[in-house]
Every structure is written in C-alpha cells, then in structure tokens.
Amino acid sequence: MSDHGVSGRVALVTGGSRGIGRSISEQLAAAGARVAVNYRSDHDAAASTVGAIQSAGGTAAAFAADVSVDDEVERLVQDVTEELGPVDLLVNNAGIFDYGGHQETTAELWRRTIDVNLTSAFLVSWAVKDGMIERGYGRIVNVASIAALRPRPKSIAYAASKAGMIGLTRSLAEAVAPDGVRVNAVAPGLIKTDILTDVDQSVLDGLVEATPMKRIGQPEDIAGVVVFLLGDDSNFMTGQTLVASGGRVTLP
Ligand code: NAP
Asked: Is the pTM of this model over 0.85?
C-alpha cells in the first residue's frame, strides 16, 4: 500500500485508543508511521490498539495523559520524543460529547468541554510546533465536527468547542505556513463510536435519515481523510476543513 509520505514519521494521535482515533492510529501505522497512541484512562483499549498495530507489523506505543492538563501534555510530548522521536505528525482527536439542551449546559460542562476538546488542541500543538518549525517539517490535523458548521441546540458547548478548533486551524495554519508546517481540520458527521452511547437510538436513526448517503459513518471513513491531510497528497493545502458527513453538510 502507498505510504502517503508518512513512512518513518513519528505520529502522535490524541485519544488514539478507541473509535476514530484507533482507526487513525492503525492506518498511520499501516502506512509506516511510528505511532504514539494517547489515551486518558482506558488502559485496556490502548493496549488493544497497540497490540493490533504490532501484530500487523507496525510500530506503536501507548501513552496515558489527560491532554486538557498543561503539565500532563508537557510530560506526554517528552515521553513520546524519548521513546519514538520528535513528533512530525500530530492529530488532535481526543474529545468528549454531551447531548442535552441549554438548561443542562452548566458552566462546569462548558469549561470541561472547552478544555478537553479545544484547549487540549492548543496545548499539544504548542508543545510540538516549535520543534516542527526548527526541523522545517510538521503536519497537524484537528478533528472538529460538522457541529461547528451548523447550529446545535442540543450540544451548545460541544459545537462551540469544535468551531474554536476550526478557528485555531485557520489562524495557526497561516502563522506557521512559511516554516513547512501545515495545519488542517476534518469535520466528521455521525460516526459509529462509543461517544454516541448517551444519544437515543431514535435520534441517531433520524440523523441517518437526514444523511443523503443514508448510513452512519465508520471510523475508517474519517481516518482516510486524516491520513490524506497528513500525507504528501495534500502538500498544497493548509488552513482547510474537509467535511466527511455522507453529504449531510455541504460547503460551497
Ligand atoms: P470515543 O470513541 O469516545 O473516543 C474518545 C477518545 O478520546 C478515547 O481514546 C479517550 O480515551 C480519549 N480522550 C477523551 N478525553 C481525553 C482526555 N482528556 N485526554 C486524553 N484522551 C482523552 O470518541 P470518537 O467518536 O472516536 O471521537 C474522536 C473525535 O472525533 C472527538 O474529538 C469527537 O468530538 C470527534 N467527532 C466524533 C463524531 C462521532 O459521531 N463519533 C462526530 C464528529 C466529531 P479514554 O478511553 O482513555 O478515555
């Protein structure tokens, strides 16, 4: 299979142990990248992902860290650098989702959502960007959501956090473009992972019905887009957001 230009590169995938992040980790390793699989607390899931990559002949290691916490991010990047090498490819994928109306959107939920989904992307990007600039090579992909692009009255904090990720993507991309560092985002639609556990099946059925392709996405549908954005096939792209939603959201 094509190595997409990522072979031998060190990739850090936040939330790389489950769902979309697991598929990204697996596809990057299959293309020859050396993959740091970050997770917060589910050690078994991280061990399973790393085990699957190694069984397939790839290189991966698991790193526990809460990416919303400054000093845990600092330690994470130090550990990855010592064990695998400096980070060339970063995927800010770790995220949380709450389904509920404005009455349930407390200040606590707001802060936690912004911290885990948005501040984490800032912290990890800032921990690796100067090294990328020094080496004249770096790729960052932020996993946003179509929730950033349409009103989401049942997930206000989440939608705001993802819109923030797109703002971060566009501005950081322009700042570091002259230094050989590209920053892009992907905005997935509905993807079958554990993050949807608290959403009623009837709601999910309605969303699939509203999707022109009439199906829920799989983690692989997003991982392919991420690998494209990290690899050489997208070498003239930066600051962009690619939507992968089965046609549910289309941009002009
Ligand atoms: P998931 O299956 O729930 O997996 C979440 C991953 O993030 C896990 O590896 C989890 O690790 C990790 N994580 C959560 N909080 C963390 C923290 N503070 N520090 C480090 N790792 C943390 O979710 P998913 O559906 O794959 O979502 C991945 C990304 O895609 C998220 O940013 C999400 O917003 C976005 N997205 C998902 C959908 C969808 O429909 N699924 C749609 C649009 C966008 P532990 O297991 O150890 O907690």
From this structure: yes
